[in-house]
Amino acid sequence: MLETFVSLLLMIAELMAAECIFASGLRRKSLFPVRLAGAFVVTVEAVFFAVLLFYRSTNIWFSYGGTGVWQESLFKFFLYVFAFALTILGMKFCFNDSVWHIMFYCSGAYATQHLAKNVASLISHFTVGDSGWATWLIEAGICAVACVLAYFVFVRGRTLPDNGRDMRRKVILSFVVIFVCVGLSRITVDNTMRGAVSFIAETVYSVVCCALVLVILSDINKIDRMSDDLMIAREILAREREQYALSKEKTELIDMKYHDLKHMLGKLREGWSDEQMEKIEDALKTYGAAVRTGNDVLDVVLTEKSLLCDKFGISLTCSCNGETLSFMDKCDLYALFGNALSNAIESAEKVEDKSRRSIVVDVRSVGGIISVHVENYYAGEIVMENGLPVTRKDKGIHGFGMKSMEYITKQYRGHMNVTASGGRFCLDIIFPPSAGASADRDR
To answer: Which pTM was predicted?
Structure first.
């Protein structure tokens, strides 16, 4: 009796510990330690009550992990499912998130606990056998190691996207796989005819299945995050298309008004002092400094950003052969340079040394290979992750500008590289000679 209760107590503790590890990124509810302790006590009492009820009904004493009659095997399956369901409710009681998220995390936790239990069974079989406390200590130690590894491999720094119906499908899939594994495990474990070789083979099989479940869940999560990122990047590009149309219209309007005012100024020179005229002409020069690169879209972007640079006291130096980028879609080109220059202006603006508030833009073609180089100074520290800069404001939609730039670059078979060192931030993009033809085929 004592061995059964201790084994069940250890299983519930391992499972809830693994669930807390997987759900560690979720927001905890108030009085979390009290809630967790309460959930653990309620789960243990409910499971023990079910065991006693089974004994009173069948006069068969439940034996954890051992072989038995078919009634006991069936009861074990439902008992483990019942205990798992109670721990899910306990996690919902402790964490403030949707039940589907919690169920997804709990499925990963169950796979981890089941994997650890089978590894511990193998180790115990070859070392201490079924010697009670030694077996329990080995199981607890292996489970602790498995939880730590799961945290660093599958949990740390990762978030679970909430995509409604797809999330429900993932949860249902993971639960079906887990329940099938547990059900098959019960059939084989309770087979009194199996020998040591069968035990080893079946245990290794369970370990491999649980490991595959964890890998599949992790890959599904990764694919969903990439899909969400791509969706947001496409939405940003759609907004950039609207912004390009507005910017082009404003730039043309400013250019037209500049020429009108310049023409009118020539007629108003009489009666104005030279000093007054110089001030007026200097003010107009800012709006007349339209950039000409040979590409209308690039002209719009650079002219628009040059006005911002003038506002923030930033020097913008351009050496651009815009004709080399004629193969790009207008909105893609606007989004690419618009995001690049917006980031550069945001960084250069924070530099205290005004002499270092500068941005260099260079576009050229050498041997058919087109290179884009944007360079600026920055203040503070830039942390790189997966080849892209990450800032403290990199939340929600912010930070997807760089991802959309990378997405656009790849559309044209290009390669984007970002470096940040010594206070200098460099963005380099290279397009192959076949970029235009490749882009046409992709569309």
So the answer is: 0.56
| Cα–Cα dist 214/226, whole Å | 18
The answer to whether the beta carbons of residues 112 and 147 sit under 8 Å apart is yes
Q: H/E element holding 349?
A: helix 330-349
Q: Compute the residue count for the chain.
A: 443
**Residue at 408: amino acid letter:** I
CA 132 from chain center: how many Å?
A: 43
Place of tokens 């009550």: 49
Amino acid 395: pLDDT: 45
Q: How far apart are CA 19 and CA 105, in angstroms?
A: 7
Task: Give the whole-number percent of the chain exceeding pLDDT 70.
Answer: 67
Burial of 353 (0-12, 13-18, 19+ CB in 10 A): exposed
CA distance 74 to 219: 33
Q: pLDDT tens digits for 325-335?
A: 989 988 888 88
In this structure, how many other beta carbons lie within 10 angstroms of the beta carbon of residue 346?
A: 16
* Residue 429 buriedness (CB in 10 A; 0-12 / 13-18 / 19+): buried
Element (DSSP H or E) covering residue 214: helix 196-267
Q: How far apart are CA 371 and CA 26, in angstroms?
A: 43
* CB contact at 8 A, 370 and 363: yes
pLDDT band, very low/low/confident/very high, at 398 (cuts 50, 70, 90) = very low
Q: Is the Cα torsion angle 83, 144, 19, 202 positive or negative in sign?
A: negative
Which position has the higher pLDDT, 303 or 61?
A: 303
d(CA 157, CA 295): 42
Confidence band of 344 (pLDDT split at 50, 70, 90): very high
Distance CA 147, CA 43 (A): 20
CA distance 384 to 415: 17
Q: Tokens 């884009």: give the residue.
A: 372
d(CA 429, CA 373): 7
DSSP conformation letters of 78-94: HHHHHHHHHHHHHHHHH
> 381 in helix, strand or coil?
coil
Q: Supply the pLDDT for residue 20.
A: 92
Is the C-alpha dihedral spanning 80, 85, 90, 96 positive or negative? positive
pLDDT at residue 393 tops 70: no
d(CA 89, CA 106): 10
d(CA 86, CA 105): 14
